């Protein structure tokens, strides 16, 4: 077990128990573009850290050149990253030594909805599929791997968000 992770999370649990409002975190991102007239290219800045800016493009299925990850790719990446981190942290907490871990996410969407081709067509992803391939140190009991699976699924914030969409507000400022 990773002692540092255990100590850090123990301290956080105690703090959150005393002051639950401290557990409410605000994630943020913004976009930027050198050419606002270009509908196909921008950058997204996660956590408002300019050094972490990610180029974003528009998928070919809606007319873009698809020369950079599109927003749907980034959504899949967020789900993959969240599952990966959840598995790693839970494995550490359980004392399971991972020797390999890869998370693969696919999402299906009918782009006709996004292109306004019919009010009856859905806009948004209709399904997600996540495959988690992991290897633990030889001799790790199958029951421990099953406990890891259950706990990691319970901890994945992005997966839970996608399963039950939260309230969303969008404001346009001109």
UniProtKB/TrEMBL annotation:
It comes from the Bacteria. Pfam families: OsmC. This is OsmC family protein. It comes from Hydrogenophaga crocea.
């Amino acid at each position: 077990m990773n002692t540092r992770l255990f100590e850090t999370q123990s301290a956080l649990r105690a703090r959150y128990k005393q002051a639950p409002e401290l557990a409410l975190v605000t994630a943020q991102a913004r976009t930027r573009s050198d050419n606002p007239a270009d509908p196909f290219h921008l950058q997204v800045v996660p956590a408002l850290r300019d050094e972490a800016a990610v180029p974003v493009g528009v998928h070919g299925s809606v007319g873009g050149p698809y020369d950079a990850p599109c927003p749907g790719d980034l959504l899949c990446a967020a789900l993959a990253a969240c599952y990966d981190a959840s598995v790693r942290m839970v494995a550490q907490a359980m004392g399971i030594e991972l020797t390999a871990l890869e998370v693969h996410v696919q999402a299906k969407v009918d782009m006709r909805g996004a292109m306004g081709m019919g009010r009856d067509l859905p806009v948004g992803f209709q399904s997600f599929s996540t495959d988690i391939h992991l290897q633990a140190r030889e001799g790790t009991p199958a029951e421990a791997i099953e406990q890891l699976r259950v706990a990691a699924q319970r901890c994945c914030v992005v997966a839970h968000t996608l399963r039950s969409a939260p309230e969303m507000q969008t404001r346009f400022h001109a």
